[in-house]
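tool_call: predict_structure(chain=1)
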Amino acid sequence: MHRVAIAAGNRTQVAFSIVDKDGYSGAGPLSPQCPLEASYGSAEEEHDQEGRVTVAQRDAFVLLTAHVPHAGGGLINLKYCQRWDETFCKFLKGLASHKPLVLCADLNMAHEEIALCNPKGSEKNAGFTPQEQQGFRKPLQAMPLNDSFRHLYPNMAYAYTSWTYMTNTQS
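tool_result:
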């Protein structure tokens, strides 16, 4: 875990995970105040080697940032993602049992059609398959997590919250 100031004289703090593999995963919050405590990982070695989780303890809540693994083309990483889902769900439950939990994450999947520009054309693509959706829903069913954007804008059209890098959909 590293904590740095963004610029000289700037009081913004960042705590982020570092892994051995350059340009791989990583997650971290930016905050105007230092957290009471910052840690990384979920205590599961298989996942923690990739720097996917950072936890920042605050007075009133726990802020968790995460970079959830992607199933990959042809769902080559699906089994790993399913193991991640199980571990991550237990980890979230543990954190939420002490304080309210705020989760900010790249979830690498869309759980509703409204999140995608072309949901019908994405049904067999990584990030929107039934297998991934099932794994994604477990944490949502296990505790009261809400999609804050869809809570505020439940029917906003053309406000896509899931983009794939694989088909250049952001351009």
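agent: Helices lie at 45-48, 78-96, 119-122, 130-142, 148-152. Proceeding to next step.
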